[in-house]
Structures are given as structure tokens and as C-alpha cells.
């Protein structure tokens, strides 16, 4: 295989030795460094398609904010119905592709995979009113908790925390319904857009507010109660990663914090391990916390230095 290109002068052809490189890459793919799922080529879910799907779902949930601002009382239901129908069809295909990478579906044939994808999508659609109610509570919490907020529209269109929470709420429902790959991709799209990294497996109650938001990390097994507020660069992470006898990490074990109702965690705080932050507590900026604190605690950086 010889493809001539030129070095910019239009005179001297460059030989890339493509035959050898292509052969070595095939050996790496097929034998030496094969990382294919179960050794087979499979259709990967599409990030572009999922971005379109999230945009469609956002428009269904909040038609004039994320859909068309010129909708009327007469046209809005038609817009929601048409957008929802198109979006759910697209979602079904992406869920089907995601199921190809699940150990739970290894024995299913193509027809069974398609049926399961339809069932997941149908249940997901049925939960959209509940998701919207949660998101409304989140937006109201942002408006009530930020003196700089001038309107609900500003929060929905300008606050990265709102965008990240919207993605998370959609992804969390898909995770619970058995589509973890798609859920993770949706949260990763949000991470790219906002700088906020929420694992779809985390459990987060109503009226959740992330102010500013850049650098926030919430791990897979974290549990957050209602009316929790986080500021930028807060980490709810794991302190250690348990391994089995062979040294492989054990997946899914509870390893992230439990944050009870009405907790505020200020910028730069790092909270690690399966500890509990009691209801009504305030965790100050830049605190490094690896032990539980009782309800109504007020933990500052100076206190943590003194304790250590």
C-alpha cells in the first residue's frame, strides 16, 4: 500500500511505509493488545446521538427553555409529543447498543436485545414526569440559595450546575433501569460541557444545588439527601479501593460518603470514604475529611489542622 503525499513544496514525495504500520496495528488489535469486548467487534453507542437525545429530552421537559421559545399554549403539546416520539426511538437504539457490553445480556439474541431496549426506554419515558419534578426542585433550590440569581430562566440557561444535574437525573434513571453504559456516557458528556463529574450511580435527593461547580466530583456510591448544596471543587470520593485475593479491584462496594439532608459543603472540600456527614452540617472550604461528623456540625479547615 503506497500513498504519495508531498512535503509542502509540491516536489518531493514522502513514503510512509504504510504496509508495515498497518500490519503491526492489526497484530496489536487482533492478538497482542486485544481489548475487544468478548473478542468481538460490536456497535458502540454514539456520543453525538446521545447529545442529540439529551437535547431532545431537555426540550421535552422544559419546552420553552430548551426547545423553542416561541411555543404557544396551542402548539406546545404537539411539540412535546413529536419531540418525545423521535427522541425515544433514538434512545432505544443507543440503549440496545449499550446492552451489547453488559454481562447480563451475553446470552440474548438480537431480537431479545431489541425487546429489552424497548422495555428500558418505555419505563424511562414513564418516569419523565418524576424526573421533571426533581429538576424543578433543583432549580428552585438554586434560585433560593444564590443571591446573584435574577430569574429561573437565568439558572436554567446559564448555570453549569443545572446542566450537570439535568444530565445526571436522566442518566441515573437509565442506570437504575439497567443501561449503565449509556448512563455513564450521558454523564461524561455533561462532564465535558460543565467540568462537573457526577457518576450516574450516585443517589441524590431533591432540591440539589451546585454553585459555580467546576471541579465537583461525586463518586458512584455516594448518597446525598435533600437540600444539599455544594460549591466548586468539592470531592465526594473514595479513601481506598478494596481488592480481591488476586489483587483485582472489587467493583461496586460502598466507598463514597453519605451526606444527609441540609448539608452545605464549601469550595475545595475533599470528603473521602464511607463516612456520614450529619444533617444540617456545614463543611468549610478546603477541609480534608475522612471521618464521620454528627448532625449540625460546623467543620472548618482550622479545626481539621488542630485535630491532626
Write up what this structure looks like.
- It is globular, with a radius of gyration of 24 Å.
- The chain is α/β, with parallel strands linked by helices and 308 residues long.
- The protein has helices spanning 18-32, 47-61, 63-67, 76-99, 110-126, 128-145, 152-158, 160-177, 180-194, 301-307, and strands at residues 5-6, 13-14, 197-198, 203-204, 209-210, 217-218, 223-224, 229-230, 235-237, 258-259, 264-265, 270-272, 276-277, 282-283, 288-289, 298-299.
- The strands form 4 sheets. It has a 5-stranded parallel beta sheet.
- Helix 2 runs antiparallel to helix 4 (76-99) and helix 8 (160-177) runs antiparallel to helix 9.
Write the layout of secondary structure elements.
Blueprint: E1 5-6, E2 13-14, H1 18-32, H2 47-61, H3 63-67, H4 76-99, H5 110-126, H6 128-145, H7 152-158, H8 160-177, H9 180-194, E3 197-198, E4 203-204, E5 209-210, E6 217-218, E7 223-224, E8 229-230, E9 235-237, E10 258-259, E11 264-265, E12 270-272, E13 276-277, E14 282-283, E15 288-289, E16 298-299, H10 301-307
Parallel strand pairs: 3-6, 4-7, 5-8, 6-9, 7-10, 8-11, 9-12, 10-13, 11-14, 12-15, 14-16
Antiparallel strand pairs: 1-2
Helix pairs in contact: 2-4, 2-9, 4-5, 6-8, 8-9
Give a brief description.
The chain has 308 residues and is α/β, with parallel strands linked by helices.
Task: Jot down its keywords.
single chain, 308 residues, alpha/beta, five-stranded parallel β-sheet, 10 helices, 46% helix, globular
Amino acid at each position: 500500500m503506497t500513498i504519495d503525499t508531498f512535503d509542502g513544496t509540491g516536489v518531493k514525495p514522502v513514503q510512509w511505509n504504510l504496509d508495515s504500520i498497518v500490519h503491526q496495528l492489526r497484530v496489536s488489535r487482533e492478538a497482542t493488545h486485544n481489548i475487544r469486548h468478548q473478542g468481538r467487534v460490536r456497535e458502540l453507542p454514539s456520543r453525538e446521538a446521545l447529545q442529540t437525545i439529551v437535547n431532545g429530552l431537555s426540550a421535552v421537559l422544559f419546552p420553552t427553555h430548551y426547545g423553542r421559545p416561541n411555543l404557544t399554549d396551542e402548539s406546545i403539546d404537539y411539540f412535546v409529543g413529536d419531540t418525545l416520539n423521535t427522541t425515544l426511538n433514538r434512545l432505544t437504539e443507543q440503549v440496545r447498543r449499550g446492552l451489547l457490553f453488559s454481562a447480563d445480556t451475553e446470552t440474548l439474541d438480537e431480537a431479545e436485545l431489541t425487546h429489552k431496549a424497548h422495555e428500558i426506554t418505555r419505563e424511562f419515558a414513564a418516569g419523565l414526569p418524576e424526573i421533571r419534578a426533581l429538576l424543578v426542585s433543583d432549580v428552585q433550590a438554586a434560585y433560593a440559595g444564590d443571591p446573584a440569581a435574577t430569574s429561573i430562566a437565568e439558572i436554567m440557561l446559564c448555570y453549569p450546575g443545572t446542566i450537570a444535574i439535568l444530565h445526571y437525573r436522566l442518566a441515573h434513571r437509565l442506570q437504575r433501569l439497567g443501561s449503565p453504559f449509556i448512563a455513564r456516557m450521558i454523564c461524561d458528556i455533561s462532564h465535558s460541557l460543565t467540568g462537573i463529574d457526577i457518576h450516574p450511580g450516585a443517589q441524590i435527593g431533591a432540591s440539589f444545588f451546585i454553585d459555580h461547580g467546576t471541579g465537583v466530583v461525586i463518586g458512584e456510591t455516594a448518597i446525598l439527601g435533600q437540600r444539599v448544596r455544594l460549591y466548586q471543587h468539592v470531592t465526594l470520593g473514595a479513601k481506598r479501593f478494596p481488592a480481591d485475593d488476586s489483587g483485582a479491584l472489587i467493583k461496586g462496594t460502598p466507598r463514597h460518603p453519605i451526606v444527609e439532608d441540609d448539608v452545605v459543603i464549601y469550595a475545595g472540600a475533599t470528603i473521602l470514604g464511607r463516612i456520614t456527614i450529619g444533617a444540617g452540617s456545614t463543611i468549610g472550604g478546603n477541609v480534608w475529611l475522612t471521618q464521620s461528623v454528627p448532625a449540625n456540625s460546623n467543620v472548618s479547615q482550622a479545626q481539621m489542622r488542630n485535630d491532626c
